[in-house]
Design goal:
The complex is a heterodimer of chains A (624) and B (272).
Chain A (H helix, E strand, L loop, with lengths): L22 H4 L3 H11 L4 E7 L2 E6 H17 L7 E5 L4 H12 L3 E4 L6 H11 L1 E6 L2 H9 L9 E4 L13 E3 H14 L3 H8 L5 E6 L9 E5 H5 L15 E4 L6 H14 L2 E4 L6 H8 L3 E4 L1 H16 L3 H22 L5 H22 L6 E4 L6 H9 L4 E7 L4 E5 L12 E2 L4 E4 L4 E5 L6 E2 L3 H7 L6 E9 L5 E6 L4 E2 L5 E2 L1 H9 L4 E7 L6 E7 L1 H10 L7 H6 L1 H15 L8 E6 L19 H7 L1 H8 L3
Parallel strand pairs in A: 1-11, 3-4, 3-5, 4-8, 5-6, 6-7, 10-11, 12-13, 13-14, 25-26
Antiparallel strand pairs in A: 1-2, 8-9, 9-19, 14-15, 15-16, 17-18, 18-20, 20-21, 22-23, 24-25
Chain B lengths: L7 E12 L2 E12 L3 E5 L6 H8 L7 E6 L2 E2 L5 H7 L1 E4 L11 H7 L9 H5 L3 H20 L15 H14 L4 E5 L7 H16 L4 E5 L3 H7 L2 E6 L2 E6 L1 H5 L2 H8 L4 H11 L1
Parallel strand pairs in B: 3-8, 3-9, 6-7, 7-8
Antiparallel strand pairs in B: 1-2, 1-4, 4-5, 9-10
The chains are: A alpha/beta (624), B alpha/beta (272).
Chain lengths: 624, 272
């Protein structure tokens, strides 16, 4: 018989419930927080991970035990306070164990995007002076090993899923199970050490290195401490999260926004974090978990909206009518709800439409139990948010940077203004500089960029204000609206200052538009370069018997251009006159991170797109 | 390629098979070492599929013997051969298109079902634990081949490349000791073929399954195989390491009709 197919079994560490360190000491650091929850509710579920078709649970005491074992293993490999541990993996519990264990022993975690090419991996490992690199699988291991000469500090490479790497002979390579075994042995020898480390931690020392994806230049390593994310916890929780809340961890954990939802919020409030099967199964996972709080980036909301819109076009006449009617009513009521003027009749009409339209829709999207969604990481079209509100899913837009320890502003229950990013969180001050730049001050501000005092000085001024690089407007009640990145504002030849994001987001409301880049700096009018959504447009074309071979072929078709032009006309209705898009070109290729056109978080690098498709831009404006 | 050792897992000795005067196999002998991957190549009609059909018991050879793990299996019924540990993927995908991926994978477990319909009906403890074990194995195969996202979808609506992967999964669910792969790369695009090559390598290295690969894509065979056997008009005309076979004049003559050997290499390089 063949060797049974057993793929790296899940390694379960001995549970731990620290007893000696006082509560208030544990509460000051992120790893201490896990210990605190292990003490409060050792057998309650902290994490769930779907593997082999089953959601497997990890309790708080097991969570704490895993961190303890990993901490021992890291120490045994020679990780010392001040060192860094690189993590190249998709989201899974081990990501959190390594991150928190590194912090527990005074070292730093440094997350690296899985999609990063080897040279970027080398840059970060080297810049962070990482001693250990934890890699998810063969693909990531190959990158870490390939750059050996550029990363002299990396002494050990740990692989979570050893498949395909068993005959590698690099002595630095070690499997996760060997790593955990070594940790367990060390733990048995010295059972008191870990608690001593937890007690000894200074919450203001750097614990996380978060590399900003950087739409320009090399990534910078922002140093964050437990204090910069916990400082805010002294104030009431605007989300009112509790252990009953469930979250789905699916955006990259290297990004501060997912750290907020997989670490900071759950460690404050004891929520249960879920890890799905893979990045390909997010939709199914979402439906199964049905999280009560859901973090989405604009791209996710756009995709959901596009998915529903396209589906409804194919459904029966009756369904379509009900759906349109339901959303129209929903929009009306949502408008009054947002202003707090909901009437009794509204509630009745809502109830009926909920049965017919909202409920099935929410179930389909996996948002039925969602108390609210939070949109962050990039500006979102308020039109899109209103659509979700109309379907009974409140979404609060927030704002924050890596440098503000995740979130600094948030719309919240009872204080929502669509089109703004809300009020500052309690304990945070915000004002705008003379040139309109948004300045933020508070306990949440990061420590500085590692080995880059110059950039740090440029970011934090003498009075402690963080210069965000975004321009914005604060209204009389304190709600902040972001105009755009200071450096990327479009100034037309007529002297109007426009936000490219706002224009692009209006275009992206169309399901056919995947990416858009607004052009018009120093020009007479605004135009746009558009990347079509290949799957959706391809489907559209197939129905019209428009045969095509690939993206480039499809992008050339006059029919497609016609289709996108209509989308632009619709978008123009939501834009001010000067913002309206007067000309359009379809980008002949799909934008890609490998070609430098997108960042690791899939944000468009406008500058690169401008340069690469300069001929299209010149063509629009009739320049030579 | 991994160093391969041990006694032959499968031995084919002087196999003859003919249909009404057409010689499909004309005295073919070969042996497969445990843990290795044998590539079988040859022009259309060379007898590759006939060889597979003899090994898996679908055809009964007129002459010659087949030994598996030292035991003769010539002429045994296909289901007995399958139960003995010889799994096979089909060129023309043998699925139930309306059933889900999971259900199709579970079908691969069928040869190992021991419970009877009456125990199934009453959902006895034995039937239950067997069902759980089968499901576990199918789930492991699903993760191994990264099919999770398709778990609950009917196979019929999935793209061709994915269906080929499910076919491999169905065969793996049989927990074979020897896996016969009948043109697994046919109809795949470049990217899918690279993925397939990775999976086949993992099947060999991680699961230790011995494989015989019949394939038209020369590059794939040359890259993966420890040994390559070449058939032509039902006869074996060469057998050896990929490098040696590639430059064998008889092979060049039969396979591409006298074009010099670097033409094969070029083709191999283009494909692989």
């Amino acid at each position: 018989m063949m060797a049974a197919i057993v793929l790296d079994p899940e390694i379960r560490a001995e549970p731990a419930v620290p007893t000696r360190v006082p509560d208030e000491v544990l509460a000051r650091t992120l790893p201490g927080r896990v210990a605190l929850w292990a003490r409060r509710q050792p057998d309650a579920v902290a994490l769930r991970r779907k593997r082999f078709g089953i959601w497997k649970e990890t309790t708080w005491s097991e969570y704490c035990g895993a961190i303890e074992t990993v901490a021992h293993a890291l120490r045994r490999l020679g990780v010392e306070p001040g060192n860094a541990v690189g993590i190249l993996s998709d989201n899974r519990p081990e990501w959190l164990y390594v991150d928190l264990a590194a912090q527990a022993i005074g070292a730093c975690s440094a997350g690296i995007y899985q999609t990063n090419p080897a040279e970027d991996v080398a840059y970060i490992l080297n810049h962070a002076q990482a001693v250990v690199a934890v890699c998810e699988d063969q693909e990531q291991v190959d990158k870490a090993l390939e750059v050996r000469d550029e990363t002299p500090t990396v002494r050990h490479v740990i692989v979570l899923d050893a498949r395909g790497t068993r005959d590698y002979d690099d002595p630095r390579l070690m499997t996760w199970s060997d790593f955990m075994e070594a940790g367990a042995a060390a733990r048995a020898e010295d059972p008191d050490w870990f608690e001593g480390e937890l007690a000894a931690r200074d919450p203001t020392e750097p614990g996380m290195l978060v590399y900003t994806s950087g739409t320009t230049g090399r990534p910078k390593g922002a140093e964050l401490s437990s204090a910069s994310v916990i400082g805010l916890w002294e104030h009431p929780d605007v989300l009112e999260a509790s252990p009953d809340d469930t979250l789905l961890s699916y955006l990259p954990l290297c990004h501060i926004a997912e750290k907020l939802f997989s670490l900071f919020i759950p460690l404050r409030s004891g929520c249960v974090v879920h890890f799905g099967e893979s990045l390909d199964t997010v939709q199914e996972d979402l439906r199964e978990v049905s999280p009560t709080i859901f973090l989405g980036v604009p791209r996710i909301w756009e995709k959901m909206h596009a998915g529903v819109t396209i589906r409804m076009r194919d459904s029966s006449w009756l369904k379509r009518r009900l759906f349109e009617r339901g959303l129209r009513v929903g929009r009306e009521i949502a408008g009054r709800r947002l202003e707090g003027r909901e009437t009794r009749l509204d509630r009745l009409r809502w109830f009926i439409n909920d049965l017919l339209v909202y409920r099935p829709l929410q179930e389909r999207l996996g948002l039925r139990r969602c108390r609210f969604g939070i949109s962050g990481a990039a500006p979102v079209a308020s039109e899109l948010l209103l659509w979700f509100w109309s379907a009974g899913v409140p979404i609060y837009e927030g704002y924050g940077l890596t440098e503000t320890g995740a979130m600094s502003h948030l719309n919240r229950p009872g204080a929502v203004r669509l089109g703004t990013v809300g009020l500052p969180l309690p304990g945070i001050e915000c004002r705008t500089a003379e040139d309109g730049e948004v300045l933020i001050r508070g306990p949440n501000i990061f420590l500085g960029y590692r080995d880059n005092p110059e950039a740090t000085r440029a970011a934090i001024d003498d009075e402690g204000w963080l210069h965000t690089g975004d321009t914005g407007v604060i209204d009389d009640d304190g709600f902040l609206s972001i105009v755009g990145r200071k450096k990327e504002i479009i100034i037309t030849s007529g002297g109007k200052n426009l936000s490219p994001e706002k224009i692009e987001n209006a275009l992206k409301l169309s399901p056919f538009v995947k990416e858009a880049v607004a052009v018009g700096d120093g020009r007479k009018f605004i135009s746009a370069l558009v990347q079509i959504d290949y799957d959706i447009v391809s489907d559209w074309a197939t129905r019209r018997r428009l045969s095509h071979s690939d993206y480039t072929d499809l992008a050339r078709r006059p029919e497609v251009k016609e289709l996108v032009s209509r989308a632009v006309d619709e978008a123009n209705e939501h834009l001010a006159r000067v913002e309206q898009v007067r000309a359009l070109r379809i980008i002949p290729k799909e934008l890609h991170q490998d070609d430098g056109e997108l960042t690791a978080t899939r944000k468009v690098r406008r500058k690169v797109v401008h340069e690469r498709f300069d001929d299209l831009v010149r063509d629009i404006y009739g320049e030579e | 390629m991994a160093f391969v050792n041990g006694s032959p897992l499968l031995e084919v000795d002087d196999l003859h098979l003919h249909f009404e005067g057409v010689k499909a196999l004309d005295g073919v002998s070969l042996s497969v070492q445990e843990g290795s991957l044998l590539g079988v190549i040859g022009p259309n009609g060379a007898g590759k599929s006939s060889l597979f059909n003899c090994i898996s018991g679908l055809y009964r050879p007129q002459r010659g013997r087949i030994f598996f793990q030292g035991e003769e299996i010539t002429g045994r019924a296909p289901e007995r051969i399958a139960r003995a540990g010889i799994g096979r993927t089909l060129q023309n995908l043998g699925f139930f298109p309306h059933m889900t991926v999971l259900e199709n994978l579970l079908l691969g477990r069928h040869v190992h079902y021991r419970s009877r319909w009456w125990t199934d009906m009453f959902w006895s403890r034995g039937a239950r634990s067997e069902e759980i074990r089968n499901r576990e194995l199918a789930e492991h195969v699903m993760e191994f081949l990264e099919l999770e996202r398709y778990r609950a979808r009917p196979v019929g609506i999935l793209p061709y490349g994915v269906r080929k992967r499910i076919e491999l999964g169905r065969a793996l669910c049989m927990e074979p000791t020897l896996l016969l792969l009948d043109e697994p790369a046919a109809g795949l695009n470049q990217e899918e073929m690279e993925m397939l090559a990775g999976y086949l390598m993992d099947v060999q290295r991680e699961l230790g399954v011995t494989q015989i690969l019949v394939e038209h894509e020369l590059g794939l065979v040359m890259d993966l195989a420890d040994r390559v056997a070449v058939l032509d008009f039902g006869r074996k005309i060469a057998d050896g390491e990929p490098e040696a076979v590639r430059s064998d004049p008889a092979v060049v003559e039969a396979y591409i009709g006298g074009v010099p050997s670097d033409a094969i290499e070029t083709e191999a390089r283009e494909v692989g």
